[in-house]
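Intended use. Records like the one below are meant for learning the mapping from a protein sequence to its folded structure. Do not use them to infer anything beyond what is encoded.
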Amino acid sequence: MRLATFTAEGSRHAGLVLGEEVHAITAPVKEVLAGRAQAVRTGAHWPLHRVRLEPPIPDPGTVYAIGRNYAAHIEELSHERPDQPIVFLKPAGAINAPGGPVRRPAVVRQLDYEAELVAVIGAAGAVAGFCVANDVSARDLQTEPQWTRAKGADTFCPFGPWITTADEVPDPQSLWIRSWVNGELRQDAHTSLLLFGLDVLVAFITETHALRPGDMILTGTPAGVGAGMDPPRWLEPGDRVRIEIEGLGAIEHPIL
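Structure written out for the chain above:
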C-alpha cells in the first residue's frame, strides 16, 4: 500500500494512493502502520494533482537520523569513518510536508540538502514502510558541539510523498536515490552503499530506545551535497530541491 495524508476541499484525510488517485480511508496512517486499524476506503476520492499532500504521518513519534552512513559522503566532507552509527534527533518543528517550503533561518548562510531513505516503524518495533526525506542541514551551525540547531530547525524535515508499506519493497537496500537542485542532478547513488544497514540501525537504536509506531529513521545521505563541491554550493531562497527514491516516489520543495 501507499499511505498518505492529504488535504482536499479544505479537509484533511488519511488516504490510500491507487495509481493517479488518492482514496480517503477511515483511520490515520499511523494506526494502519501500527496494525490497530485497516485502510478501509470511505468512498471519497480525488485525482492526486487536485490534492495537497501533507506529511504522511502528521504527528510522527521520534525522528532518528543517521550521520555519515555512506563512504563517498564521508570522503567528500573529509570526515572519519565511524565505528558505529552516529544517531541524532530531529524535533517536532522540523516536520514538513513533501512540498515544503523549507525556510532558511536568518542566522543560516550555508544551507544544504541531504537525500535520505526513511524507515517508518509499525507494530512491535518492526519496520512497516518506507518514504523519502530531505535531512536539511545548516553547515555553518553544524560546527556546534551538537547538531540540534543545524539539523532540527523548523521545516528541516520534509518527507513523503507517502509511505510505501514494507511488503511492497522487497529490498530497501537495493534502490536508486537521487537529488536535484533547480533541475541539476546532484546526488546519484544506491542504498546498497549504506555503511550500516537497516537491521544494524534498528538493533543499535533499540539498545537504548524502544521503537514505537510512527517513529522514523532517516538512514543517511550519499555523496553529492553542496558542502562537498569546490567551491561549496549552498541553497538560496528561490531554489527548488527534488529528491527521488526508486519505487517510493519523489518530494519537491522550494527554499524560502
